[in-house]
Amino acid sequence: MKGKDREAIFLKIVEEHQGILHKICFLYCQRESDKEDLYQEIILQLWRSFPSFKQKSSFSTWMYRVALNTAISMSRKPRIFSSGDFFTSQKEPADMPDDHPEEIKILYKAIAHLKKVDKAIVMLWLEEKTYYEIAEILGITEKNVSVKMVRIKARLAEIIRIYQ
Amino acid sequence: MKTFDLEKYKDSWKSGADFTGRKLSGDQINRYLMKESNDVTRVFKRNVFFDVFLKSVVVIYWIGLQSFTSEINWVLGLVMLVISAIGMAIELRLIRKIPLIDYGQKDLQNILALKTNFLRTSLYPIAFAKGLTAPLLIISGMTGWFLQKYETVRPLDVEDFVVFGAFVLIGFILNATVEFKQQIFQINQLEATQNELKTEALKSSFLAKQKHLRWRRFWMLLMALVCGLFLLGWLLFN
C-alpha cells in the first residue's frame, strides 16, 4: 500500500470510529487544552501503529487499545501556576451536552470519578469486550480484571446513588 | 459490598458514541498528524536534541576562538571542547536507547514498564549531561564578554575565581536539579499507574491463596470426619 493510499484509508477509518476518541478524551481530561493534547497524541500514536494493525481484531478494538494505552501512559506536564492536575484530579467531565438522557450523563459522571485504569476497564467492559480481551490489552490477568470489575461496580453504585 | 446492575447501562453507553456532539473532519485529523508528539519519550528526545544543539554552538564557538584569537589559553579551550564532547556523547547514547513503543502491539503494563525503565536508567546520566550545559554557556559567555570589553581575558584573582566558580557551580546544580526533578515527576506518575494496575493483582493472588487454604482445610476436616466416623463405627460394632 502506498503512503498516500494508506493515509487516506487511515483518515477514513479514524473518522468513522471517532466516537471512541471522543469518549476517551471526554473521560480522561477536563480542560479543553488537555483534551486537544490527548486527541493529538492518540491520533499520532494510531498513525504510528497503523502499519502493524493486522486486522486480526476489529479496528475498534485496536483503536481502543492504542487510545487507552496513550491516555493512561501519557503523563501530565509539571504545571507551576496551575492548581489542577492533568487526568488525576478530574472528577467530572466538562461541557456535557444537555440534550442527552439523564442516565447516560450520570454514567459518564460516575466513570469520570474512577481511577485511570478502572476507567479503561469499565469502558472496555461496556463495549462488551471479554475479560480475556481486557486483560490482554492491559497486560494483567483475567482474575485481576474480574476482581477489579467487582470493585468498580461497587464504586460506581456508590457514585450513582449520590447523583440520583 | 453492594454491587449494581451495570448491564443495563451498556446500551446507553453504545448509543453515546458521539456523546460530546463533536465531529472531527478528515482535515482536522490530518492536522493532528502534522503536530509533534507529547509522549514522554518524544519530549525527552526533543529536549536532548536541543541540549546537543546548545553544546554544538559552544563547540563551534571555542573552535572559532582558538582559530581567530591567541588571547585564550588553549588548555581552557581544550577543556571546554572535551566537556562538551562528553556531554554530547552521553546524550546521543541516551537517544539511541529511547524505546520505540508500538501502542497497538504492546500491552499497557509493558508500555509503562518500558517507559519507566528508560527514564530510571537515564536519570543520572541525563541530569549530569544537561547540568554541564549551564557552566559551558556561562564560561563561554564570560570569555566572550571579556574579549569584547577588554580584547583579552584578563587574569583572574582569587576573589574572581570564587565568584565565577560559584556561578558555574550554581549553574550546573540548578540545571541538573531541574532535569532530575522533572524526570522524577514523570517516573512517579508512571509508577503510580503501574501500582494501580498491580494492586488488585496482589489482592487477587492473596484471595486465590486464601481460597486454596480454605479448600485444603475443608478436605482435611472432611477426611478427619470420615476417619472419625469409621473409628466410631468400629468402636460401636466391636
TrEMBL record, chain A:
Keywords: Sigma factor, Transcription, Transcription regulation. GO terms for molecular function: DNA binding; sigma factor activity. Pfam families: Sigma70_r2, Sigma70_r4_2. It comes from the Bacteria. InterPro entries: RNA_pol_sigma-70-like (IPR039425), RNA_pol_sigma-70_dom (IPR014284), RNA_pol_sigma70_r2 (IPR007627), RNA_pol_sigma70_r4_t2 (IPR013249), RNA_pol_sigma_r2 (IPR013325), RNA_pol_sigma_r3/r4-like (IPR013324), WH-like_DNA-bd_sf (IPR036388). Residues 106-156 form the RNA polymerase sigma factor 70 region 4 type domain. GO terms for biological process: DNA-templated transcription initiation. Residues 13-77 form the RNA polymerase sigma-70 region domain. Belongs to the sigma-70 factor family. ECF subfamily. This is RNA polymerase subunit sigma-70. It comes from Marinilabilia rubra.
UniProtKB/TrEMBL annotation, chain B:
The chain crosses the membrane at residues 48-68, 74-95, 123-146, 161-178, 218-237. Keywords: Membrane, Transmembrane, Transmembrane helix. This is Uncharacterized protein. It comes from Marinilabilia rubra.
